[in-house]
Amino acid sequence: MTPLELFKGQYGSTQGVALAAASGRVNLIGEHTDYNGGSVLPMSLAQQVAVALKPNQSQLNRISSAQFDERVTRPLEDAARGDASD
Asked: Considering the entire predicted model, what is its pTM?
C-alpha cells in the first residue's frame, strides 16, 4: 500500500497532501570519519521511509503506519515517548 493510499484510507481526502521519501543508507567503512576529513564508503539501501503529510487546524498530530497496526493522536507539544510515533 502506498503512503497516499494509506492516508486516503485513514483520513479520507488526499487534497493538499504532500509526499516525501528517503532511501536507507549504510556506511560500509568510515562511520563518523567524514566530518573529520576521513574516507567513507556509503551505499544506498532498497529500504526507504515514505510519508504523506497534510496540515490540519488542530494542535494534534495524527499518526498512522503501514508497518504497525496502530493509530496515535498526540498534541504537538508532547515530548518524545520512545515509541513508533516519535
From this structure: 0.68
